[in-house]
Amino acid sequence: MLESATHVGLQTTNGPLSIDQFGAESARLGREIADEYHRYHIETEEVDDADPLPHRFLVKVGKVGLAKLIAKEMVTYFPQFDVILSRPCTYGVFSGPVGGFAPRPKLCVGCLRCEVQHPDFVKVLPNPDLLALGDSYTTHGHIAAIDEEAKKGMVPVRGQGYRGRFGGPGFDGMLTDMSEIVRPSRDGIHGRELIGTEVDIGSKPMHLSFDSNGKLSGSIPEMFTIQVPFIFDLPPGNLGSPQLARVVDSTSSRIDTLACLDSHTVARLGLDAPNIVPVLDNTEASRASEFPNARLIELRSSPGRSWGWDAAGFEIANEATDAMIGIRIHFEEGWQDRLSQAVESGVKVIHLLADLHGRGSDGTFVTELFKEAHMLLIEQGRRDAVTLFGGGGIVGADHVPKAIISGLDAVALDLPVLFALQGRSNGSLRHRENVAGTLPRHLDLDWAEQRLANLCGSWRDQLLEILGAMGIREVRRLRGEFGRSMVVKHLEDEAFEGIVGYVGGDC
Amino acid sequence: MAIIQGITDTLSGKIVKPSETLVHKTTHLMQDGMKARAFGEYEKPEALGDARWTDELILSTWYMADTGEVPDNLNFKTGKSDGGFDRLDFQFLPESDWLEHSEAIDTKLPLNRRGDKKNKIEIDIPWYGGGMSYGSVSVNVMMSRAKNAKQWNSFMSTGEGGYPPELYEVKENVITQVATGYFGVEEETIQAAPIIEFKYAQGAKPGLGGHLLAAKAGEEVAKLRGSVPFVSLFSPFPFHSTYSVEDHSKHLDWIETVNPKAILSVKVSTPHDVDMVAVGSYYAGAHIIHLDGGYGGTGAAPEIAKKNIAMPIELAIPKVHKFLQKEGVRDKVTIIASGGVRTADDIAKAIALGADGCVLGTTDLVGMGCTRCSNCEGGPSGRGCPWGLTTTDIELQEWVQQDWGAKRLNNLYTAMQWRLRDILRKLGLSNVRELRGRTDLLRYIGKEADE
């Protein structure tokens, strides 16, 4: 008998293992353990378009000019058909059945070689239909990026340098830092070393207390963990629909995050589940008991009410359920007091909301607002007792780390869901309640889930790029790390101070 | 049979080395087209340009590369990025105080200021060519740049992709780059170079290392890099042998052992503490601190990195310049700036902000036809640049002929030197070195001023 084999439970129905069997059985167990090993990863897979965006360029070819060119080249180069048939496009715009007589603009990447080579009869134009998408904040550039990310699930990589403006307003005015030499976590991006993106939701005590028997005697952590620092928020405006609810439900379950949905939708569709956050009006707080599987339930101001903190609603909801109760607080006048009162009353999750241009009611941008909320809680010594979600203005992958640097634990995604699913918007996208949009008529659940998972995979990988460049191994450490960011305005003040005409970075 | 084969190959999209006639036809169409656009014979292409490289900046660069002169009707000075170089201008003297435009206005730049026994190198213009590896660009492009560097008594860096044998012809003007993947780094290539450049980071993808996509890592590329053909190649980040300034110093010692005369350049990107990094590099033995800003060029980089990680070069230069001054070592080290430096005006502004000189990359490519379509990494075709610049595709690379490329760059540099001298004389300076750190000669154009 092999004592060590018995010790680890390696026995067969015929008794303890022989030494010969031990090696094989150990190997089998090892394989089983390895099979159970799971490292968090979002499976991405390229999916087809349902309603493709307008392509980037229009290609116009003068038929007469083209015919003349062909005739001329036939005469000049005959019989060298490799020369006669050569085309000024490596992307296939002129490689259809009738070549340049019916160009294929969806293949055009805007290299302009055709237009430069044949200025008499070829023209490449930016597509106005693409440029018209979105609004002044959520631009066609954001929409096109989200569309690509949701289609491919990859980090967008391109050649040439940055093409946009110097710094800019909002999130563009913030840069993230990097570390020049010491970077053990860089390899995480290629999967060899872990960079964690999980976030704890709820409350952590500042310390643990034990009694004389070694058992926990004081406050214990009340929290659960999600795998990515972003959740799906309530669909803005007219976008809420049963199909969309099912999509965010299945996607949030698949990638292990949360989806906020109107409580009536949750009830009607039977979506009560740990990954779903039913959102209740304060006046309906007692309905919290209807969602026994929810880990988190959010309360919001009732329509027509002021943005007041409703202590009574919180108490009622808390009584009605064991789930955590979160409070949605809009950045309206007096939000700081409401935040303090809510936390004082024991609220463990605060969901902060700016408008969809990332502005509070006084025009302050969310990076400043999130920072103020974060600092307020630190000053009160309660930061770890509360989880801060925040939403409004998050429409690019870079906005996620920047919002977390500003003090959030996790960001809430609203419009990106619409554009990931190839929806279209009409008019301004600033005010949540006024957003008018349409989703593809036939929203196939599998297709939509994969699109959203692709977006999340891409954004998570881009977050890893940012964290890797900083040498940070888990996103929880990024929260409120203002020192990991640089504000263009401040850098300009430092660099251009004393130069004639310079009166401040935002001049 | 050859005719049928030609038809079959063309229609099937098979990629073959182009015939001389096809090269002749294509290059003439491209070159004539560039010229016609630059000379205003046709409207500006509506889809050309972006905020940093406007249509006029691209067309004016083509004009200069064609003529050797600055254009009258195109803005060849600034882009429309609404900040940085594009909001800085010079405070020129009254016209009566301008110096004569003359070749006597000195544009030379010494690169070794340490007073040691290593190479005493002085270049004729205060800029040289930045690293673009073989693989990211073709040998034709490398040789065009290197031949031009020779004409200007300046340099071109190999980038991290090995040292094609052709480069030995102009080795006195080639910088060997040592980067984190050590691709193509051999004793022979270190010994060949007057300057060795350690690339710690690249402005367009700071902290992320490099990545040559598999499609561009063909057999020739793989041979020079010592890799398997058509396998993606990563330059990791950071140097896995360097975790401290002491390690960095040992790195430089290694080069000194192999090539005792070579001067050492350390290329870093622009984090918040770039000033500390610079002073550390100086004390480790660097002769050149090469700062590569966040808006710099690249053959392939995550879009999120280009705009968001690290700071633009305009903001890093004064920070480093002032800190080195405070440390009392500013005059013992050369600061070279890159990453969004496009024009002679940008170079002069960078120097006025505190750099000694600059490195150009994208400007060279635009001079040879680049339209900044951003498909350098392969694009949907997987073949790389349709202009034949950032590609080693056996057909496309033929669109850039070495002598043509070198001539274009020579013309471009001639016009840029003229403009640099023009700026200096209007500031009353007879020497580009007198411009360094002269922020008093700059003015910031507020938004109110031009709206």
Largest pleated sheet of chain A: 8 strands, parallel
Helix content of chain B: 25-40%
Shape of chain B: globular
Task: Give the name of the CATH architecture of chain B.
Answer: Alpha-Beta Barrel
Cα Rg of chain A: 28 Å
The residue-averaged pLDDT of chain A reads 90
Structural class of chain B: alpha/beta
Number of domains of chain B: 1
Query: How many distinct beta strands of chain A?
Result: 19
- Tell me, briefly, the overall form of chain A: globular
What are the low-pLDDT stretches of chain B, counting only 5+ consecutive residues below 50?
Answer: none
The CATH topology of the largest domain in chain A is TIM Barrel
* Order of helix and strand elements from N to C terminus of chain B: HHHEEEEHEEHEEHEHEHEEHHEHEHHEH
Strand content of chain B is 5-15%
Q: Largest beta sheet of chain B, briefly? A: 8 strands, parallel
State the fourth-level CATH superfamily of chain B.
Aldolase class I
Distance between the termini of chain A: 83 Å
Mean pLDDT of chain B: 92
Class derived from helix and strand content of chain A: alpha/beta
Can you put this structure into words, describing what you see?
- The complex is a heterodimer of chains A (507) and B (451).
- Chain A is of the alpha/beta class and 507 residues long.
- In chain A, the strands form six sheets. Chain A has an eight-stranded parallel sheet.
- Chain A folds into three domains: 3-36; 57-126, no CATH class; 177-206 and 223-490, Aldolase class I (TIM Barrel).
- Chain A has helices spanning 3-7, 19-36, 63-77, 81-84, 113-117, 128-131, 140-152, 242-255, 263-269, 311-320, 335-344, 366-379, 399-405, 415-420, 445-470, 488-496, and strands at 11-12, 15-16, 57-61, 122-126, 157-158, 174-176, 199-203, 222-226, 230-232, 259-262, 276-281, 296-300, 324-330, 349-353, 387-391, 410-413, 424-426, 436-438, 485-487.
- Residues 1-9 of chain A have low confidence and may be disordered.
- The longest helix of chain A is centred in the C-terminal third of the chain and has 26 residues, at 445-470.
- In chain A, α7 packs across α15 (445-470) and α8 crosses α15 (445-470).
- Chain B has helices at 2-12, 20-38, 55-67, 139-151, 187-192, 219-225, 245-258, 274-284, 303-308, 313-327, 344-353, 362-367, 402-426, 447-450; strands at residues 88-90, 109-110, 122-123, 127-129, 156-157, 174-178, 195-199, 210-212, 233-235, 263-268, 288-292, 301-302, 334-338, 357-360, 442-444.
- Chain B has a single domain (109-450), classed as TIM Barrel, CATH 3.20.20.70.
- In chain B, α3 packs across α13 (402-426) and α7 (245-258) packs across α8 (274-284).
- In chain B, β10 (263-268), α8 and β11 form a beta-alpha-beta unit.
- Chain B is built from 14 helices and 15 strands.
